[in-house]
């Protein structure tokens, strides 16, 4: 499937305007059925759809390995993937990225600020890892991540995510949504049996809470981004012992949490 499509636009430059063709990034709808039930519809880039599906199921804790899957049927033309697993009891509740006691939230809402209350209810084990990363390697990884996507260079419409060890990039993917790009690299790592607990995630875009949650559930110890983190993502990174680095541009960066894993 094509990653881009031509679109006629009226380009305005200072006091002049003219009609020309511009490339748009293609957006694709993929609906996942798990054990005959509709689970989710992902709006994504039309590539690495198998990896995206597997990564999504893995980060939502619906599977832990390929051995959990008994059938996988992807129809790219219809935008449907049907997955069957050994465990037929996978419920809608496990789709959510956190377990929340709603009564607890209601009873403490007047005493605890909303953000802190939310963080208290996030159910993730602290990440344990002795991985160390040289600061110059961070700049190198970021350059390679940003140079990877020809689609980004022509449209500016995708995010790139890379999965690295301390020496090299192991997996890289692009997507219109940053969380999909992350799921794609997780899915490819699952297919290739890549160990995750000593790996590093490189992002081209903003670090949201969801990105930290996905990494925490898989015990990935380091997240590095060209852009900014949110306040909740920093707070959660501190809570679950993830090293979070942002604003990696040129030879500058901000270390927001657990900087002991970075060799300065």
Could you provide a short overview of the structure?
This protein is of the alpha/beta class.
Number of strands: 14
How many helices? The count is 8
Rough shape? globular
What are the segments in which pLDDT stays under 50 over at least 5 consecutive residues? 92-112
- Side by side, the strands of the main sheet go 9-8-10-11-12-13
Helix and strand content put the structural class at alpha/beta
Largest sheet: 6 strands, mixed
The CATH topology label of the largest domain is: Cytidine Deaminase, domain 2
Q: For the terminal residues, how far apart are their CA atoms?
A: 43 Å
Sketch the topology as an H/E string, one letter per element. Answer: EEEEHEEHHEHHEEHEHEHEEE
CATH architecture of the largest domain: 3-Layer(aba) Sandwich
Overall pLDDT level? 89
Oligomer: single chain
Strand content: 25-35%
What does this structure look like?
The chain has 264 residues and is of the alpha/beta class. The protein folds into two domains: 28-85, Ubiquitin-like (UB roll), CATH 3.10.20; 133-263, Cytidine Deaminase, domain 2 (3-Layer(aba) Sandwich). The protein is built from eight helices and 14 strands. The protein has helices spanning 49-59, 102-108, 114-121, 135-148, 150-155, 178-191, 209-217, 231-239; strands spanning 4-13, 16-25, 28-34, 37-44, 69-75, 80-85, 133-134, 159-164, 169-175, 200-203, 222-225, 243-249, 252-257, 262-263. A hairpin with a 4-residue loop joins strand 5 and strand 6. Helix 1 (49-59) crosses helix 6 and helix 7 packs parallel to helix 8 (231-239). Residues 92-112 have low confidence and may be disordered.
């Amino acid at each position: 499937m094509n990653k881009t499509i031509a679109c006629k636009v009226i380009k305005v430059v200072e006091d002049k305007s003219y009609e020309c063709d511009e490339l748009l990034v293609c957006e694709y709808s993929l609906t996942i059925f798990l054990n005959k039930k509709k689970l989710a519809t992902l709006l994504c880039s039309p590539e690495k759809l198998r990896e995206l599906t597997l990564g999504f199921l893995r980060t939502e804790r619906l599977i832990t390995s390929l051995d959990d899957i008994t059938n996988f049927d992807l129809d790219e033309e219809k935008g449907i993937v049907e997955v069957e697993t050994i465990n037929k009891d996978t419920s809608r509740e496990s789709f959510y990225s956190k377990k929340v006691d709603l009564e607890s939230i209601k009873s403490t809402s007047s005493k605890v600020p909303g953000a802190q209350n939310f963080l208290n209810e996030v159910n993730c084990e602290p990440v344990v890892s002795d991985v160390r990363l040289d600061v110059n390697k961070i700049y190198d990884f970021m350059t390679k991540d940003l140079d990877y996507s020809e689609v980004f260079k022509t449209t500016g419409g995708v995010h790139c995510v890379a999965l690295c060890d301390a020496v090299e990039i192991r997996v890289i993917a692009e997507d219109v949504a940053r969380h999909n790009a992350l799921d794609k690299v997780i899915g490819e790592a699952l297919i290739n049996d890549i160990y995750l607990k000593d790996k590093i995630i490189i992002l081209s875009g903003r670090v949201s809470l969801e990105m930290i949650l996905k990494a925490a559930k898989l015990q990935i110890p380091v997240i590095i981004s060209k852009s900014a983190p949110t306040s909740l993502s920093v707070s959660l990174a501190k809570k679950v012992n993830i090293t979070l680095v942002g604003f990696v541009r040129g030879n500058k960066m901000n270390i927001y949490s657990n900087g002991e894993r970075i060799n300065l």
